[in-house]
């Protein structure tokens, strides 16, 4: 007999609203600061290397990204030019922190239909204050029973969340755009996971293979969830 999902958790960035597009624009603005000295590809690769080295210290989010831009600029420039770059980098970061919250197509309508039948949760990585700001600006807060802003999304992090929600893994569904962070770890807990791709993916989140599991599902957009869940669990 098929298990029934009681709780649906949603990733926020690039699942509920636009995020990576803004980070990509900020990275391009950072690369532009070195346009007379280095190709964009070289600057991007150096920034990504710095991000990976610092991920365990800074975690995910805008503030860690700003620090990595500063550190990368220090490596790629001399002392005099670094002083002029620092202010511009801070401007890029501040602009990123004040971006509008642009909901992805179909999000509000889908949550409105799901809220009566499921316990809805946000489970997302990132900077606490920034994610709280975006959630408030999104107008989606009232749809969710619980908000979990996670420092990471490993299997143990999801196990902790599922216990906190007093939910069995087989009654839990995670919805997100990252196979690496939103799908694979949840399947390892014994839960369901639904992948909704976004057109841009941060290099750190790239994952080549799609899981082969009866607990895995994939949708082109969030609206497709409604009929699929009705047919799978509510017959």
Overview features:
six-stranded parallel beta sheet, alpha/beta, 49% helix, 235 residues, 12% strand
Describe the overall structure.
With 235 residues, the protein is α/β, with parallel strands linked by helices. It has helices at residues 20-32, 40-58, 62-76, 79-97, 107-114, 128-138, 155-164, 179-189, 225-233, and strands spanning 7-10, 119-125, 146-150, 172-176, 192-195, 216-218. The chain has a 6-stranded parallel sheet, covered by helices on one side. Helix 1 runs antiparallel to helix 4, helix 2 crosses helix 3 (62-76) and helix 7 packs across helix 8. The longest helix is centred in the N-terminal third of the chain and has 19 residues, at 40-58. It is elongated and about 65 Å long.
């Amino acid at each position: 007999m098929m298990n029934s999902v009681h709780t649906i958790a949603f990733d926020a960035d690039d699942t509920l609203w636009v995020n990576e597009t803004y980070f990509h624009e900020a990275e391009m603005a950072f690369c532009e600061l070195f346009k007379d000295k280095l190709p964009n590809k070289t600057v991007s690769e150096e920034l990504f290397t710095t991000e990976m080295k610092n991920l365990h210290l800074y975690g995910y989010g805008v503030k860690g990204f700003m620090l990595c831009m500063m550190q990368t600029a220090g490596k790629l420039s001399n002392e005099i030019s670094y002083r002029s770059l620092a202010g511009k980098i801070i401007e890029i970061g501040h602009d990123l922190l004040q971006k509008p919250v642009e909901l992805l197509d179909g999000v509000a309508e889908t949550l409105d239909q799901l809220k009566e039948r499921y316990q809805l949760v946000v489970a997302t990585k990132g900077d606490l204050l920034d994610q709280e700001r975006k959630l408030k600006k999104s107008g989606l807060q009232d749809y969710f029973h619980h908000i979990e802003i996670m420092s990471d999304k490993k299997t143990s992090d999801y196990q902790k969340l599922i216990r906190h929600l007093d939910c069995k893994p087989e009654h839990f569904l995670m919805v997100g755009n990252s196979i690496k962070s939103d799908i694979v770890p949840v399947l390892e807990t014994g839960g369901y996971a639904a992948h909704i791709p976004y057109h841009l993916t941060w290099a750190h989140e790239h994952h080549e293979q799609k899981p082969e599991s009866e607990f895995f599902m994939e949708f082109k957009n969030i609206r497709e969830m409604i009929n699929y869940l009705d047919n799978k669990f509510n017959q």
